Amino acid sequence: MIVICGIASERPVAQVTEALRQLELPYVVLHQRRFMDAPLDIGVDGTGAHGRLLDDGHAVDCSSVTGIYTRLMDWRMLPEMEQASEETVRRCAWWHDVLSSWIEIAPGCVMNRTAATSSNQSKPYQAQLIGEAGFRVPETLVTNDPDLVRAFLSRHGDVVYKSISAVRSIVRRLDDEALERLPLIRSCPVQFQQYVRGVNVRVHAVDGELFATRVETDQVDYRYAHPFGGRTELTSWELPEELARRCSALVTRLGLTLAGIDLALTDEGEAFCFEVNPSPAFSFYEAHTGQPIARAIARALGRGTGVSRGIDARMTPRA
What we know:
This protein is an alpha+beta fold. Helices cover 29% and strands 28% of the residues.
């Protein structure tokens, strides 16, 4: 049995669910927004996790689960929390804590465990791991000192800025308009990086399979090209053997079964890696290229194996 955790209508979740249906693989969906109607009865002892999940009134034995795909949003941001009672908030927090604890210790193919995704909570920390895996990383400055930023800009000539955390942000160039707002960083450190000129490449790694997308754009952040009047063209691309090897080694080093790797290839042939997303919105790339990423995810979940297979099921849960 395969368990899908998230919001059923969200496109990546919906596409994985549809791929499972087409492959005739058994699955259940734990709807994140229906936590009040999906009780969890899970316990842990010296032999592992035991209990059951409830989906639309149907009980699923935890021991029958061989694959988990999770794309959970922060429960505190759910619409149900806007005017929720104290009891509802407590129930929601408990439900997500138990679910997360079970995901962390469940055997089989898990995309992905919290421990493996933790590096993405700090971009500077993850950048160190990326560098250790053999990729070049743009020179980076994290600071709330405007003078250090100006010196950094003077040294590199062209600089971008972005969020430090795992929260998505738009990558913007440090232009004259942004420089006028620079004193505001005294209240909140910001991450600045040298701007790397080259072709963007997104690589989706799915349990050993790699799907590369070449991105041609006239904007700094191709994900938001259209709102700024720019263009973005996505095409499938075959990774050179050495680059494919490094991508595979990187996700293995991070303990990820599913990942989105953001690269830039310079005219000089160097490969820079910006970050590794442990919960990639692959549907955007699949829609433009036709790459069967959702189907690959479904197949991996059906096999019930993955880089995370060796996690010790005797861990003590947080719940």
